[in-house]
Amino acid sequence: MLYEVAAAGREEEGGGGGGGGGVGVKDAVVSPLSTSRLQWGREGGRMGGTLKVMGLSTPGKAEITSLDTGNIEDILNHAGVALVNFYADWCRFSQMLHPIFEEASNLAREEYPDVTQVVFARVDCDQHSDIAQRYRISKYPTLKLFRNGMMMKREYRGQRSVAAIADFIRQQKVDPIKEVHSLEEVNQVDRSKRNIIGYFEKKDSDGYHAFEKVANILRDDCVFFAAFGEVSESERFSGDNVIFKPVGETVPDMVFLGSLANFDLSYAWSQDKCVPLVREITFENGEELTEEGIPFLILFHVKEDMESLEKFQQEVARQLISEKGSINFLHADCEKFRHPLLHIQKTPAECPVIAIDSFRHMYVFPEFKDLMIHGKLRQFEDMLEVVASSPPESSFQKLAPSETRYTILSRDRDEL
């Protein structure tokens, strides 16, 4: 099958979610064609026209499962990986995605014939508004990923093409656990990343099956390793064992003390270790973080300046831990996010800089050295007593989902 890719978006900055007014590959929309030429056109002196590309699989009956309140739990709970398209028939972006999603489904079925391995499904949000509300759908189309019935935090936000969606599914099917064959391999893990290592007598155990489920869910947040049998024996002096190796060569390991076979306990512990209180914002995850809809408290710092980041993390944990869930604690590379800095009349040379972005305005913390003063960060977050009387407008709002890519249902936000 042939497709027509029409310019419908913005040019991505740094490969991520914000940017200007050009044509971005990620924001192209695709519809079926019947011609076979590959061409770009110019119209009216501006870049326009269409790109015509070959599809990847022979047209056939798409195996898309329509979900409703009667079948959604059963189907998702029995699917290893499920990609669900939340759509509305009247949405033009949803209409453009339909043939792409169907072709990607056909391709996935060829590669993964077991119907429980990979499921492509859809929800008509007009017909099933209760389901849309349950999953907090705020834009069409939204592609959410599920594993064994559990919705993953990260949506599919990539290019809307057969190849890109099929490749995304392949990535989800890659085993996130690397088996180690000597303890020397464990000693050589990359300590700039968060690592979880499981030591098991054998793979066929309840503890390892729970470990697998946790690794699949947190595969984007931690690196998972496992050792078995004789290789792991010296680390199993009191039975199977799981440890967490934090970032940093000198930071001590942490041991999971709960039941390894208890998935809920294992997942809660691992999530606490793998998802830091202060997360890094990049152009790749900016749209996702912005769509969460809660203000940013953000540290701009030079990438190599880990000391300032550690101080910020400590003070956020000490003064603002109760605000987790109502504000996003983030840090950003000064050079990559030079534009937001300039927006608040700062330069990378002045980093570290702390600011709040309420998605309406940005506010600057006066002096980084005052961070350690007890209550100062809390005062800044709560009362905004130290901010300018006419603060600049939000900069990170530009990373939110674009109306050139989605039909946005609501953009209402409370202003700080």
Description:
Residues about 1-60, about 385-390 and about 410-415 have low confidence and may be disordered. The chain is α/β, with parallel strands linked by helices and about 425 residues long. Helix 2 (about 90-110) crosses helix 4 (about 160-175). The protein has helices at about 70-75, 90-110, 130-135, 160-175, 185, 205-215, 230, 265-275, 285-290, 305-320, 340-345, 375-385; strands at about 1-5, 30-35, 40-45, 45-50, 50-55, 65, 80-85, 120-125, 140, 140-145, 150, 175-180, 195-200, 225-230, 240-245, 255, 280, 295-300, 330-335, 355, 360-365, 405-410.
Quick structural summary:
By secondary structure, the chain is an alpha/beta fold. The protein has helices spanning 72-77, 92-111, 129-134, 162-173, 183-187, 206-217, 229-232, 263-274, 286-291, 306-319, 338-343, 376-383, and strands at residues 2-6, 29-33, 41-43, 46-48, 50-54, 64-66, 81-87, 118-124, 139-140, 142-147, 150-151, 177-179, 195-200, 223-228, 241-245, 254-255, 279-280, 296-301, 328-333, 353-357, 362-364, 407-408. A hairpin with a 4-residue loop joins strand 20 and strand 21.
